[in-house]
Amino acid sequence: MPIERIRSGIPGLDEILHGGIPFRNVVLLSGGPGTGKSIFGQQFIYYGLTLGEPGIIVALEEHPAQIRRNMEQFGWDVSEYERNGIFTIVDAFTGGIGEYAKREEYVVKSVDDVRELLDVLRQAIIDLRARRVVIDSVTTLYITKPAMARGIVMQLKRVLSGLGCTSILVSQVSVTERGFGGPGVEHAADGIIRLDLDEIDGELKRSIIVWKMRGTSHSMRRHPFKITDKGIIIEHSKTLKLRGGLYQEIPA
Length: 252
What we know:
Strands 6-5-4-7-8-3-9-10-11-12 form a 10-stranded mixed sheet, sandwiched between helices. A two-stranded antiparallel sheet has the order 1-2. Strands 13-14 form a two-stranded antiparallel sheet. Helix 5 packs parallel to helix 6 (149-162). It is built from 7 helices and 14 strands. It has a single domain (5-195), classed as Rossmann fold (3-Layer(aba) Sandwich), CATH 3.40.50. It is of the alpha/beta class and 252 residues long. The protein has helices at residues 13-16, 37-50, 64-72, 79-83, 114-128, 149-162, 185-188, and strands at 5-6, 21-22, 26-31, 55-59, 87-91, 106-107, 132-136, 166-172, 191-200, 203-213, 223-228, 231-234, 238-243, 246-251. The two termini are 30 Å apart.
């Protein structure tokens, strides 16, 4: 029986994943600052909206107003989708403080309360019949209590997968960190995608590698990608190979 897949809307990614993200997978999107994690998640959500698939962004590190402005810069105007009831932002950033925040329908008043976040998120998924969810960033939930990282990701996974969502959990790491943003999270997630920013011949270049993805085979190579005014484009026909301590771009 063929695997049901979700098309990402990120050019080149579905080729790397040999057809798209398996339905209901919870994917950890890990990377350092400047690698394009938020753009990746927003692009995934917006593409789903264009297909009529309801989507949710959980804002943990940025004001919802800023998220909407950032998306508009790429031509991803979500206002019509919000009016039609197929997109919303779960505000877990402001705590309901400020005039703008009072306009948000789904607000987590105590941003450190994982249980409240799960309750608000669950209700939003049910109300919208959401198919796609992005949490940006999940690291915020356990940055001061790393021992709870795996448990928190598992709680999120039960809600997201259980309600039929295909999800991306943005995970922050430091520039030099080789892990994925919390002890044990790599075992809890169905998939891990790592975004990196490395110096190649005196120039910073972005790259992507899929560490794992349950339910599908995938490229085992590191591929370069660019951030354009239309969003992320992955050059799936090229790879980066480590030679002499530096990544070099070669044909796949």
